[in-house]
Specification:
The complex is a heterotrimer. By secondary structure, chain A is an alpha/beta fold. Chain A contains 18 helices and 17 strands. In chain B, 39% of the residues lie in helices and 14% in strands. In chain B, strand 9 and strand 10 form a beta hairpin. Chain C is of the alpha+beta class. Chain C is 38% helix and 17% strand. The chains are: A alpha/beta, B alpha/beta, C alpha+beta. At the B-C interface, strand 1, helix 3, helix 5 and helix 6 of B face helix 1, strand 1, helix 3 and strand 2 of C.
């Protein structure tokens, strides 16, 4: 790659070509203010804050969208630029309610930060607020149009990264706003509740529907038996809300804090992940070895992806694994197996899942199968963000807590269970067990590198007993179409399927990059979180789901064997086509 | 057998709206009734430009120019003029003209004009390709394909000094050259016919009157830059222009002047018409291209410029209608000829849509360097109703106002920019003493606020704030700091808006502030609008000496705020008055004072 | 094969050009006024006018404007034609039947010689000026 010589604020720099002024300035330790730009997205140049001077141009250039050129001389900060940016910032603030103290983003809002950095003490212009109702129709995501600064990140995430097209720019000029097409409510739109919009929104215009109150209320109720479980990706990201490095593994402290908060039993979704592998792995063998059912088999533990498939690819339903997602399995078992063993009235059990995900809030009532225990299997889902707020509100000095162990019988997990949290992890875990189930032997090397990393679509071939298993892993919904269209084309032409097994995660990076995770995720942070996940995997005594002693015990004592009748009743589900728009 | 006489009926949108189609049909009927159909041809043509007096009918070769013609006048025109050779005096533009000087060139409206772009408008039937060909149509294409290399064409345009007529004035040859040099394919040629300035209609008239000139120019460009596909993006509100384009394209395809292997040169070129929904911002080239691709019409940051990454991210030449219309003439008459017209920096002519408080509104094509005074007073015939000139607004919502002291400025890109306005696409609105400058800037900023796409915050919020503050001032609630706020917001919008719409939207506000600050101060400090435009600042009062106490005003007042005994002077309760002006209008004794 | 060859386009242009150029008056210096009052028309002025159109076209004259005009007041010598051109006096011809037109075009307009046998009078000043 060619290097360009440029001057930034008088300093000479040698920078790779094909870089924007914003990126180049960062390498020169200069931060240019911005609100709309996000490293996940192409520059949209909407906010107008990142304007800089380029010698030879009589206009100000947008640093986010302007590529450097050899010999370019750039001024990023001077009194005139400050004045222009401050005016633009004040203009934005003049349309914002500025009620930071009551805002869900208080303390981590990008606009608030900029106002502080610019020393805004007064907004000199008339306040012009839009009066549109809050859309809380999904009970997963909340849209508050009053706070929207129209940066467009959510629209781009929804359309470009996720290919969902649930939200769009409506109207124009000052009335331009962000809403589902034709102004339907979010619940009636193609929205899959992945929550990536909330993770990218710089302000408090899009956020998760909070269920903290329900959990606090339950915790105060002595008649309830409160059960909680944490998803794999939560343990490597929660620390960020407390100032720790992304990827710091906090499993033990999380168990402790949950117990101190008053939960009666602390389980781990990783146990459910191990169980999912047993069921889904067996399903794969049924289809791959015995020819019963459609290939490729497609994973179904991501609820955003399930919703997407039901809306956009209903014809692929037969390819879907019928296995429920891990936390739903734990939920169903907690109100049956666990309740029976402990002699607890399942109607008194209150199940909470702490998830990196906003779509899980929708999943728990998606279909009747989610009431397999006779009760709603999971009562409440909290995102990592909500959980961090609970801890802070509790007054517990989280970072200085001792570690502790999860409760049995739904808490022990293997390395295969924890890697569910990163893209490719489900595939890797499934292959570890499928190999064993087919060959009766464990893989010599259980790390399967082909499935790891942030490449949007990863493909590979694994040899099991002389038979080639072709796999594909896609994450970020916009990448799914490519893989599915390959399958559909092969199907239409009657050709051999390009893949036998496909893993899909709705969010970029998998659950570590989930829509309910602490703010500020970028590829760099996703990688660090994934690294934490793989470290946790390596540290486990058992690396394969079928080795989990409590899983063995569960089958021995209760379920019989994978895909048994009881398994089907409790651990499997159905799918149905859904319209993109409900009118 | 040729015809001895031609009757040209203007079929531009303005004249069509005043029934020129019926005039055309009636004339034809009468000609046939008189048995003259072999001697006289009635032709529908494009806009003559003299829209103020439309519908217009021109009789050739004797050059008689009839104005304000009605369908029922057809009989008289045929019986008197065509049969007997006597002018229908009452329809002549100047009733005092004797029959020999009822000519078009005698009308001052046309005297200072110089027609390149509008060369065929009002002369040929735009729905007949043969008439275009006869006027040396497609001869420039012939020359380009068989006598010139692409670089020769660029060189000719460079010598000509033609600059984009869409507003910014970028050298056309440069635009073409960049696209030509890019190593990427396919390439595209796009015609921007999304004319959106209020009061501007030169592009519409050009297409309606001479559609083939655009097709020919685009084909030449395609040959020059190596593109085989052209798109004309035209607003759907221009049905007549669209119809003429469709006819022109199908005739050109029929003849083989579009399509495969044009004239045996081996060069293929095709043109498609795409409709815009009438969003002003889609006149901005990146927004236009987004709309053309089927996306929401929102601008994108430049660079990359469309010349390199345009339509579907491919190299694209995008020029305005008027720019295109110049191309064939330049190739035929030579760049040198063209460069002799105009000023040092701005070559050729410019078409203006002259409207507002001027006697002869219409389309005007003048060489660059013509002064504003010549355009407004000589061509435009001065201010209507003998009122006093106040300012002229150029460049539409992106431009600014120019006061009287600069009327002798020769019009070109640089001079208008220096005065705080812009050339824009060529709208020119004349204002007289009854226009209030606060009201004028409010009008334009309202337009920009409505038409902003809303993408970037400086434009979206800044425009709205300007409007809010101007509203305040016009209601008498302004404060001195508001003037600073207007300037501060305006500056930020100019500097930080993403596209031309936002960068230029504050111009009407800033230029009125610059030249007419006194009027703003009057509104703020004295709560007074000298032009009586700002309704909230008006005050109606009854002059007791003049009031006879008839009670009519009290009866008509919608809010019953006028009281008084019969036959005694009445009184207006200022608290309740809503300034509707009814009392002022109904008083027969001039006893109501408006100030 | 192209639909239209270069030669065909050029021919098409030549053919149509003559027709269109008649609408162009900028370089025309010769004015032929044909009296088209009721009397003139009754005496065959329409045919006379048509003959002028044909002759002018036939001789390839591009600088002639033919205008019908009202009765010139010499009803007894209709059809009357007045020719106004540089280097020649304004001349009024009488009894200009269609068959005489060619002669007037050849002599008066092309060779600039008066056709004395048809000259009737110089018209009254107020009619021309």
């Amino acid at each position: 790659m060619a290097k360009y010589n440029i001057k930034v604020n008088g300093f000479d720099l040698k920078i790779d070509e094909d870089m924007t002024i914003l990126q180049a300035a960062k390498l020169a330790q200069i931060n240019i203010p911005k609100l709309c730009n996000h490293p996940d997205l192409p520059p949209s140049a909407a906010c107008g804050l990142c304007v800089v001077k380029v010698k030879g141009s009589n206009k100000l250039m947008r640093a986010c969208a302007t590529k450097i050129e050899n010999g370019m001389e750039i001024t990023t900060h001077d009194p005139e630029l400050f004045e222009v940016r401050k005016t633009v910032l004040e203009l934005i603030l003049s349309t914002h309610p500025n009620d930071c103290l009551k805002c869900p983003r208080n303390g981590n809002c990008e606009l608030q930060q900029l106002a502080a950095d610019f020393g805004i003490r007064d907004v000199d212009f008339p306040q012009l607020l839009s009066e549109r109702p809050v859309d809380d129709s999904t009970k997963s995501l909340v849209v508050n149009p009053e706070k929207c600064i129209k940066c467009g990140r959510c629209v781009e995430v929804c359309q470009i990264m996720q290919n969902v097209w649930a939200i769009e720019f409506l109207e124009r000029g000052f009335n331009m706003r962000i809403a589902p097409a034709a102004d339907v409510q979010l619940k009636d739109s193609p929205c899959v509740k992945c929550g990536q919009c909330t993770a990218h929104c710089p302000v408090g215009a899009l956020y998760e529907h909070s269920h903290n109150t329900e959990v606090w209320t339950a915790l105060k109720n002595p008649e309830l038996h409160k059960i909680v479980q944490i998803a794999p990706a939560v343990r490597v990201a929660l620390g960020e809300a407390f100032g720790l490095e992304p990827g710091t593994v906090l499993t033990g402290k999380i168990y402790t804090v949950l117990k101190r908060l008053g939960f009666d039993a602390v389980f781990d979704t990783n146990f459910g992940a191990d169980l999912t592998i047993m069921e889904e792995g067996s399903e794969f063998i049924e289809r791959f070895v015995h020819g019963k059912g459609e290939l490729p088999l497609i994973t179904s533990c991501c609820p955003g992806w399930v919703d997407y498939m039901e809306k956009y690819y209903p014809e692929m339903i037969p390819h879907f694994s019928s296995a429920k997602s891990p936390h739903e399995m734990v939920g169903a078992l907690s109100k049956t197996y666990y309740a029976e063993k402990k002699g607890i009235d399942p109607s008194k059990i209150f199940g909470v899942s702490i998830m990196p995900c906003t779509a899980k809030k929708y999943e728990i009532t998606r279909i009747d199968d989610m009431f397999a225990s006779g009760y709603q299997d999971i009562d409440v889902v909290l995102t990592t963000r909500e959980f961090s707020r609970m801890i802070k509100a509790s007054g517990i000095d989280f970072l200085n807590l001792p570690d502790s162990e999860p409760d049995n019988i739904l808490g022990e997990y293997t390395g295969a269970g924890v890697i569910f949290g990163a893209t490719g992890g489900v595939m890797e875990a499934a292959l570890r067990t499928a190999y064993y189930l087919i060959t009766g032997k464990n893989l010599g090397k259980v790390d399967i590198e082909e499935t790891r990393g942030l490449e949007g679509i990863k493909t590979g071939k694994i040899n099991i007993n002389g038979k080639e298993v072709r796999i594909a892993v896609a994450h970020g919904l916009a990448n799914v179409a490519t893989v599915l269209d390959e399958v559909k084309e092969a199907k239409a032409k009657g050709k051999e399927m390009p893949y036998h097994f496909i893993e899909v995660m709705a969010c970029r990076g998998g659950c570590v990059g989930g829509g309910g995770q602490p703010y500020g995720a970028t590829d760099e942070i996703r990688m660090k979180r994934a690294k934490g996940i793989y470290t946790d995997d390596k540290n486990q005594e058992y690396r394969c789901s079928h080795e989990n002693p409590f899983i063995k015990k569960l089958y021995d004592e209760y379920l019989g064997k994978p895909l048994s009748e009881k398994s089907h009743k409790l651990l499997h589900t159905h799918y149905k086509p859904r319209p993109l728009y409900n009118r | 057998m040729g015809y001895r006489t031609y009757v040209l009926v203007c079929a531009g949108t303005a004249c069509e709206a005043s029934k020129s189609q019926a005039i055309y049909e009636n004339l034809n009927k009468e000609v046939i009734a008189a048995g003259l159909e072999k001697e006289i041809q009635v032709v529908k043509t494009g806009c003559f430009g003299f829209c103020e007096k439309g519908p217009v009918v021109k009789v050739l070769p004797d050059e008689t120019f009839y104005v304000n013609v009605k369908p029922e006048d057809a009989t008289e025109i045929v019986k008197e003029h065509l049969v007997k050779g006597r002018n229908v005096t009452r329809l002549l533009y100047d009733k005092n003209q004797s029959k020999k000087n009822a000519k078009v060139e005698d009308i001052e409206f046309y005297q200072k004009q110089f027609r390149i772009v509008l060369r065929n408008c009002g002369l040929i039937n735009p729905e007949d390709i043969n008439e275009y060909i006869a006027r040396d149509g497609y001869k420039a294409l012939e020359k380009a394909l068989f006598e010139m290399k692409p670089d020769d064409i660029l060189e000719e345009l460079k010598i000509a000094g033609l600059r984009g007529r869409g507003g910014a004035g970028f050298p056309t040859w440069k635009k073409w050259q960049i696209t030509k040099e890019v190593n990427d394919s396919p390439k595209y040629v796009v015609c921007n016919a999304d004319e959106g300035d209020p009061g501007a209609y030169m592009n519409r008239s050009t297409i309606e009157g001479d559609p083939h000139s655009i097709l020919e120019a685009m084909t030449i460009c395609g040959y020059t830059v190596g593109a085989n596909k052209g798109y004309i993006y035209i607003r759907a509100e221009y049905p007549l222009a669209i119809k003429r384009l469709d006819i022109a394209i199908s005739q050109a395809k029929e003849l083989g002047l579009l399509g495969k292997d044009i004239l045996g040169s081996g060069f293929d070129f095709d043109i498609e018409v795409r409709y815009g929904a009438g969003a002003f911002v889609c006149g901005e080239e990146t927004a236009l291209l987004a709309s053309l691709e089927g996306n929401r019409g929102m601008p994108k940051p430049r660079p990359p410029f469309p010349s390199i990454k345009g339509l579907w991210n491919k190299p694209t030449v995008i020029n305005n209608v008027e720019t295109w219309a110049n191309i064939p003439v330049i190739l035929l008459k030579g760049g040198k000829w063209f460069s002799q017209i105009g000023t040092e920096t701005s070559k050729g002519t410019k078409v203006f849509a002259l409207t507002g408080k001027v006697n002869n509104s219409g389309l005007v094509e003048v060489p660059f360097g013509t002064t504003l005074r010549e355009i407004i007073f000589d061509i435009g015939g001065g201010i209507k109703g003998g009122k006093k000139f106040k300012a002229v607004q150029t460049g539409g919502p992106s431009g600014g106002v120019i006061p009287e002291e600069y009327l002798d400025t020769p019009v070109d890109y640089e001079n208008l920019t220096k005065l705080g306005s812009i050339m824009g696409s060529g709208g020119m609105i004349v204002m007289d003493e009854t226009d209030c400058m606060v009201d004028v800037s409010k009008f334009y900023i309202q337009f920009s606020v409505d038409e902003s796409c809303g993408k970037c915050s400086p434009c979206r919020v800044g425009g709205k704030q300007l409007l809010t503050i101007l509203q305040k001032i016009s209601e008498g609630k302004g404060e001195m700091d508001d003037l600073d706020r207007l300037k501060r917001i305006g500056f930020a919008m100019q500097k930080a808006s993403l596209c031309g719409l936002g960068q230029t939207a504050p111009n009407p506000v800033l230029s009125t502030l610059k030249y007419f600050e006194k009027e703003y101060l009057e509104h703020i400090e004295e709560k007074k609008c000298r032009s009586s435009r700002c309704v909230n600042l008006l005050r109606y009062e009854i002059i007791p000496e003049k009031c006879v106490g008839c009670g009519l005003c009290a009866m008509k007042c919608p809010v019953n705020c006028i009281s008084g005994e019969k036959r005694k002077p009445h009184y207006i309760d200022q608290e309740k008055c809503i300034k509707c002006g009814t009392c002022y209008e109904v008083c027969k004794f001039g006893a109501v004072l408006k100030e | 094969m192209p639909k239209l060859t270069l030669e065909e386009l050029r021919k098409l242009r030549e053919d149509t050009k003559k027709e269109i150029s008649k609408r162009d008056v900028s370089d025309k210096s010769i004015l032929v006024l044909v009296g088209m009052g009721t009397c003139g028309i009754a005496a065959g002025a329409r045919e006379t006018l048509q003959a002028f159109v044909e002759q002018i076209e036939k001789k390839g004259l591009t600088n002639v404007v033919i205008k019908p005009t009202g009765c010139m007041g010499f009803c007894y010598v209709e059809p009357t034609v007045e020719i106004i051109m540089p280097d020649m006096p304004d001349t009024l011809y009488g009894k200009v039947k269609a068959e005489v037109v060619e002669k007037i075009v050849d002599e008066h307009i092309i060779r600039k010689q008066l056709v004395s046998e048809f000259i009737f009078d110089k018209p009254a000043v107020d009619i021309v000026k």
